[in-house]
Specification:
Helix content: 55-70%
Structural class: mainly alpha
Distance between the termini: 153 Å
Strand content: under 5%
Number of strands: 0
Shape: rod-shaped
Number of helices: 12
Largest sheet: none
Length: 260
Amino acid sequence: MIEEQKQNDVSVNAIANVRLPSFWKQSPDFWFIHAESVFANHRLTADSTHVNFVIGALDEDGVRTIGDLLGPTASYDAIRSRLIDAYSLPKSVRFREIVKPGGMGDRRPSQLLRDMRSVMPAGIGEEALKEFWLQKLPSNVMAIIASLDAPLDSLASRADRVMEASSPQSVDALSKDQMADLASAVSALSQQVQSLTKIVNSSKDAPRQRQHSSTQWAAQQPTQACYYHEKYGNGARNCRPPCNFKPKAQDHVTSAPAEN
């Protein structure tokens, strides 16, 4: 009894840890391959358990597709066959969908090539596949890859690297770093220019200030007279420059001329 309870607990824990992705309508075959691998890893063998997990992964349209198969006697194999038949498209149709004009979506070039190969109809060779694949690549990547001579798988790996090097994220990150460096450099240069401008303006103003000071000093200097005019005044007979003596009005009393 105890041993049976332990086995039940193990089964419950195994089921609780199982996680299946939502049903892949575009790739039902691959979805069931994935689901059955999960069942095997968790040792889930009961048909009813498989059915319950499949139903849990379907949306409303998927459940309606298998509605008549549901019930106490629902069969996993019957549900699997119905879903694959309902959602699988012929390879020719899927190939036309994948090669029609448009972008790559979120796929890498190598993944795009693998997807094309998985739905490639019979009769399409490697050269034709290469042309279809190149047409789906971005123009900048195609310009590089188309000129190379190598096996198609090698070209796909090279295209992956080119895509990574030219991705918008990488360019944005590089641009932000460059802009930050440029802003720092511009700021430093602006400070240098301001400092040089102050020096130049100071050197231009210095002569003006000196000239203004000299003129002001000269204007403030008192009238200078030479030795003779300083001693004899109007009676001086000699004059020695520089001399700014201004004669004074003569007194009414005439004095003897000074000897000088």
